[in-house]
Amino acid sequence: MSPDRSGAKGMQSPGKNALTNFKEIPEAELKKHKASDIIGFIKSGNLNMVHGLITYYKLGQSVLLLRRDDEFHMTKTEKVSMADWNPLLVAIANKKLDIVRYFL
User: Fold this and answer.
1) CB-CB neighbours of 73 under 10 Å
2) How far is CA 78 from the centre of its chain?
3) pLDDT of 13-64, one tens digit each?
4) Which pLDDT band, with edges at 50, 70 and 90, does 3 fall under?
5) Can you give the pTM of this predicted structure?
6) Of the candidates 36, 18, 39, the residue with the CA atom closest to the CA atom of residue 89
7) Which residues on neighbouring strands pair with residue 22, listed in sequence order?
């Protein structure tokens, strides 16, 4: 006997609308930032700026090629170099689930 899935119809994954309804960032604001600044906005969880900069610089999937020499603090005393990390790994490490969903 298969499980009853009648309640599952029409359900959307949480945050699905957040991935399609982006706040428009003025071009003047986007011009102030370099493409590599996307990493900082990923760390802070600013999905609107991440999307805005990817669109402004026409990066598409090549955003995953961005790198920034930085450190991730595993604990108060243990640090890991992020030099080889792509933006998806930065989003995962910083627990920015909406940005992880956006990249996937």
Assistant:
1) 10
2) 24
3) 445 555 678 999 999 999 999 999 999 999 999 999 999 999 999 998 888 8
4) low
5) 0.74
6) 39
7) none
Q: Do residues 94 and 74 make contact, with C-beta atoms less than 8 angstroms apart?
A: no
**Domains in the chain: boundaries:** 34-103
Contact between 64 and 88 under an 8 Å Cβ cutoff? The reply is yes
Count CB neighbours of 82 within 10 A. 18
Lowest mean pLDDT: which of 10-24, 28-42, 70-84, 86-100? 10-24
